[in-house]
Design a protein that fits this description.
73% helix; mainly alpha
Amino acid sequence: MKSNNKGWTVAYWIVVLVMLAVGVVGWYWRLTTGHQMSNYGSIIPWGLWVAMYIYFIGLSAGAFLISSLVYVFGIERFRPVARLSLFTALVALLMALLQIWVDLGHMGRFYEVYTRPHFLSMMAWMVWLYTAYFLLLLAELWFDTRHDLVRWGERSGVSGFLNRVLALGSRDTTDAAAKRDAKVVKVLGTIGVLLAIAFHGGVGALFAVDKSRPMWHTGLYPLMFLLAALVSGGGLLLAIYALLAPDRGSEQHKDIIDSLSKLVLGLVLLYVLFTFADYSIVWYGSIPLDVNPLKIILAGPFWYVFWIGEFLLGMVVPIVLLGLKSMRRSPWWVGLAGLSIVIAFVAVRLNIVIPPLAVPEIAGIAQAASSPRMSTMYLPSMMEWFVTVGIVGFGAAVYALGYQLLPVKPRVSE
């Protein structure tokens, strides 16, 4: 990742390499011991990996939908981050698929969703939609970068070789070819909007159709998942563009982060409204099966996940930093706001997955057998953390290499 400060670049890669080393250990444990070293069990069958899966899926869908503001709806003000949004969506999707793959009991059987399909399975439909979305992302990003891939392929070194390979033999750099590419990108982007809404709304629907968990069983969930995707994806792009744009600090850069900040601020405020509506209605109803997971979220042993992670970092900090005009034009404050949102939504996803499962469907079931798997208390094991850290390190490495070697950097103008 190119930076004016080589010290920061070296520090970045040291951290990434450490994360990858930790990940190698975690993956070794996972592949040699299966699920034995995990802390989820019979009562709480989903844990950190599922939470991080929907977290990365949200980042991907949100980043893609923001790119569609340019490619589909023609809002040129966000053009500088459009291509980077597509690349961000692609890397985040890869991280999400790795997270859910490692959660499978038999990782080697993932292909059976294609060879032995169950057409009434919500999970099967999501996998098929992910596959279509992945292929569409590759195609849209290729057509959007094709002209620059050809041009960058004339360079020497690793970057030139990689761009020549990815250009797939294309050589046409005429204006007519660029216009054809733009038309294809618009068509693919339009299809992609429908896919992104379908698959991420489908993730919310997967939770919402589970009648055994009252906190999930609400029509708000598909909409909340889509909104959360836009907030988290927007926050990530805001941080990246504010801190890494080549023209950082210029007036044009300040104008663009001001516009992007307003968009993200509006999304955060809307998410606050949705969250308040969801929680307040559950609390007012006072139905034990509904309200007990909420009590765990707000006042349980991990109360700080909501109050510090979700409320403070995800709501208060970005609203304050993005709500003040003087701060909206500062790359550092805007970048901090974006990073705050990105971190906060890890907490959001953990609270969506774990507390509803921590309330047993049958009273006393946790005491029915003496086993660590029959517990309503869940804390991720070292193996779970190591695997996740490794996946984050993998994503950070791919992103940094792509940012340096491929034509995906934010652009001030076309």
